[in-house]
Amino acid sequence: MRSARTLSPAGLSWRRDELCGAGTVVASLALVALITAASYATGVATQLQLLYFIPIALASWASGRRGGLAVAALAGAGWHALAPHFVESVMAALLFVLLVEVIARLHEALQRSDERFAAAMEALSDPVYVEDLRSGEVLYRNERYAEAFGALRPRPQEGGEMQNVAGDRWYVLRSHRLRWSDGRSARLCVLSDVTDERRARELLAKHRDAAHRTARLIALGEFASAIAHELNQPLAAIATYNHSCMRMLQSGNPDPGELQQAMHICRDQAKRAGKIIQRLRDLLRPPGPAFTGQNLNEVVGAALRLAEPEARDAGIAFERRLAQQAPVVRADRLLIEQVALNLVRNAVEAVQGLPRERRRITVATHLEPDGSGTVSVADIGDGVPGEVRERLFDPFVTTKPGGLGLGLSICRSIVEAHGGALRHRPHRDDPAAPGAVFSFTLPGASA
Questions:
Q1: CB under 8 Å to 1, separation ≥6 — which residues?
Q2: Distance separating alpha carbons of residues 268 and 311, to the nearest angstrom
């Protein structure tokens, strides 16, 4: 494939091929004359005359029918001069002409194949070139390649991509091994334009960075809201007991035991507030909460002791249904205790304005067959409205007037961080007052 094997302009390539063909014809004519002279000198005409096929084949391949027929005519004349037998001479001439025609047709077929290959490569919208596997020599390049890179060889850069600096385009190389027309091993290289994909990736990276910054701002806002929500309970307890201490002091005859107990509770709640802040910070960065084996019955008992003063003032009774074999789960004690306390206080708020017979809350623990533990808090209040059930655990979804809607969302995040699940269902023990049951399950300590 002449057009594919050269990087010279078409006119120069054609001129060089023509000169090469003419030189081959001249050499073939000289070889015929040499064979004829050698046959005449040695007297071995028949054997040496068979060598005429060599120059005829060379001239036919290099120069086509015209050159091949010229050499065949000289060879036929030499054959007749050496063996002047008319029939043999005619047969030899016919064989010479047939050889010229066969070789010329083979050469034309190969040229048409090369032209089809070149036409197919030129029709491609991507730059294409063929290189020798051993030397790296470029054997062929299409017009798109010449326009994009000229005489330069593209070199892969980051991610296997290469850039055309002049056109500000990016390409990715795809190659396939093949056998070139002259028999040597070569590689067909196609450069696919990936500029749009690259720009899309860069734009996506910018959007991802912007989204990451936005997410950090949102997380910061949620963290601040979480702190406000979680600290509200211990701070409210501190204020309540501090007010009680002031009333006892103002009475003029305070009970030292009660006063000391109230001050101890204030101190414990202040420590609890500090631990809550620390645990919430740990949730946002490694190493995270300190998970150890925890007795769920003890965790529930601690949460109920914290909620009892508020429940007692509202006339609410707690019913404990703790498992005989206490579930031991892998958890952070303070965080899980806070989850249980949040669920209990939600239940307290749900029933505190109801008739006395409905002001009761059932708190239960259960050991699951796989070793995990479940805590459930059930009330027979008005239940959760149907329109918010699907979004109940989403941030900022609340049914309380003035509520932030973060309590259940924070509880779910804490439980899921422990590898557990937080669920809700209606209370089915009393159809007239469906109420609600919130439960969470945590993996066992040995899981």
A1: 110, 111, 113, 114, 115, 117, 118, 140, 181
A2: 19
Distance CA 56, CA 68 (A): 6
- The model's confidence at residue 372, banded by pLDDT at 50, 70 and 90, is very high
- Residues with Cβ within 8 Å of 275's Cβ and at least 6 positions away in sequence, in order, are 334
The residue type of 440 is F
Q: Could you give the CA distance from residue 258 to residue 11 in angstroms, rounded to a whole number?
A: 112
CA contacts within 13 A on the Cβ side of 186 = 20
Q: Is 103 left (phi over 0), alpha (psi -120 to 50) or beta?
A: alpha
Query: How confident is the model at residue 281, as a pLDDT?
Result: 65
> What is the Cα gyration radius of the chain?
48
Q: In angstroms, how far is the first alpha carbon of the chain from the final one?
A: 71
Sign of the dihedral defined by the CA atoms of residues 281, 307, 301, 368, in that order:
negative
Element (H, E) at 126: none
What band does 300 get if pLDDT is binned at 50, 70 and 90? very high
**CB–CB of 438/303 below 8 Å?**
no
- Structure letter (DSSP) for residue 160: G
Tell me the C-alpha distance between 183 and 198, whole Å: 38
- Type of residue at 300: V
The yes-or-no verdict on residue 377 having pLDDT over 90 is: yes
**Is the C-alpha dihedral spanning 296, 302, 304, 306 positive or negative?**
negative
How far apart (Å, rounded) are the C-alpha atoms in residues 267 and 234? 10
289-447, what's its fold? Heat Shock Protein 90 (3.30.565)
- For residue 387, give the DSSP letter: G
Other CB atoms closer than 10 Å to residue 356's CB: what's the count? 10
Instruction: Determine the 3-state secondary structure of 407 from DSSP.
Output: helix
Which run of H or E residues covers position 362? strand 360-367
The larger pLDDT score, comparing residue 114 to residue 68, is at 68
Answer whether residue 215 shows pLDDT above 70.
Answer: no
How far is CA 95 from its chain centroid? Answer: 68
CATH of domain 196-288: 1.10.287
116 vs 111: CA distance, rounded Å: 9
Residue ranges per structural domain of the chain = 2-123, 128-193, 196-288, 289-447
pLDDT bracket for residue 402 (50, 70, 90): low
For 335-363, how does the pLDDT look when each residue is reduced to its tens digit (9 = 90+)?
888 889 889 988 888 888 888 888 889 99
DSSP state of 444: B
> Model pTM?
0.41
DSSP code, position 357: G
Q: Are 240 and 309 in contact (CB under 8 A)?
A: yes
Q: pLDDT grade, residue 109 (50/70/90)?
A: confident
